[in-house]
Design a protein that fits this description.
Blueprint (H helix, E strand, L loop, with lengths): L1 H7 L1 H15 L3 H9 L20 E4 L2 E3 L2 H10 L7 E5 L5 H7 L4 E6 L2 H13 L5 E5 L12 E6 L8 H5 L1 E12 L4 E8 L4 E9 L25
Parallel strand pairs: 3-4, 3-6, 4-5, 6-7
Antiparallel strand pairs: 1-2, 7-8, 8-9
Helix pairs in contact: 1-2, 2-3, 2-4
The chain binds S-adenosyl-L-homocysteine.
Length: about 230
C-alpha cells in the first residue's frame, strides 16, 4: 500500500517516513531538512515507488542510497550548525549531501565512481543546492585541499577509523564513520579534542565498503602481495 501511494503522490509516503524519523531523531532541524529534500528524485524511475520506504535502494555501480533512518541518525550525530563546513566521503546519488546542505554553510562531497559523481553533481545543480561541491576522490581519503572541516561524514564502511580524515578535522570537529568488516559495521562518532580523540559507539549498521588507500581493496581485486607463489 505504502509503495503504490507513493507512486501517484509521494506526500503520504513522505509523511510516514517523517513520522518514523521523528520517533528516533530528536533534532527537528534534521527531520525538517529530510522533509524538504525530494528523495524520489535521487533514485531511478522504477524505484521511485520505494523512495520513502525505510530501506537502502540500489543507485547503480553496485552502490546504494542509505536508509532514511540511517541518514537521519548520522546527520544528527554530526551536531552541525549553520556556520559549519562539512565533508562527505561517498556522494553516491547525492541525497545525504542535499540533506546536509540545508543545515550547514558548505558541503564538500567526494565520490570515487565517475558516473555517480557526474549524475549527483548534475542533479544537485538542477535542484538548486548551490552550497554543495562535488569532488573526484583523490588518492588520500577525503579532500585535503578543503581542510580543516567542522564535521566529516563517511557513508561507506571503513576497516578502521581513517587517520587521514582525523587530520582533515579541526580541533572540536566531529567525524561519523561506519567501522567494521566488509558486511557489517558499528557507527562511530569521533570527536577531535586538544588531547586526541574521543570515541562514541552509536550502534550497528551495514554500508558498502569504503575503497582505496587506507580502506578496503576494490571488490574482485586480488592483493598480489598476499598470493602464495609455488
Ligand atoms: N551518501 C550516499 C550513499 C553512498 S554509498 C547517498 O546519499 O546516496 C557509498 C559511496 O561511497 C559509493 O558511491 C562509493 O562509490 C563511494 N566510495 C567508496 N569509497 C570511496 C572513497 N574512498 N572516496 C570517495 N567515495 C567512495
Amino acid at each position: 500500500v505504502e509503495d503504490r501511494e507513493s507512486e501517484a503522490e509521494p506526500g503520504a509516503a513522505r509523511e510516514r517516513m517523517l513520522a518514523l524519523l521523528r520517533a528516533q531523531v530528536r533534532d527537528e532541524r534534521v527531520v525538517g531538512a529530510m522533509g524538504a529534500v525530494p528523495r524520489e528524485r535521487f533514485v531511478t524511475a522504477e524505484l521511485r515507488v520505494h523512495a520513502y520506504a525505510d530501506r537502502a535502494l540500489p543507485i547503480g555501480e553496485g552502490q546504494t542510497i542509505s536508509q532514511p533512518l540511517m541518514v537521519g541518525l548520522m546527520t544528527e550525530a554530526l551536531r552541525v550548525t549553520s556556520e559549519d563546513r562539512v565533508l562527505e566521503v561517498g556522494t553516491g546519488c547525492g541525497y545525504q549531501a542535499a540533506v546536509l546542505s540545508r543545515l550547514v554553510r558548505e558541503v564538500v562531497t567526494v565520490e570515487r565512481v565517475p558516473a555517480l559523481r557526474e549524475r549527483a553533481a548534475a542533479l544537485l545543480d538542477e535542484l538548486g543546492y548551490t552550497n554543495v561541491r562535488v569532488q573526484a576522490a583523490s588518492e588520500t581519503l577525503g579532500w585535503r585541499d578543503g581542510a580543516p572541516y567542522d564535521a566529516i561524514i563517511v557513508t561507506a564502511g571503513a576497516p578502521h577509523i581513517p587517520r587521514a580524515l582525523i587530520e582533515q578535522l579541526r580541533p572540536g570537529g566531529r567525524l561519523v564513520v561506519p567501522v567494521g568488516d566488509r558486511r557489517a559495521q558499528d557507527l562511530v562518532r569521533v570527536e577531535k579534542t586538544a588531547h586526541g580523540v574521543e570515541l562514541t559507539r552509536l550502534g550497528p549498521c551495514a554500508f558498502v565498503p569504503l575503497v582505496g588507500r587506507g580502506a578496503w581493496a576494490e571488490a574482485g581485486v586480488i592483493d598480489a602481495s598476499r598470493s602464495i607463489k609455488v
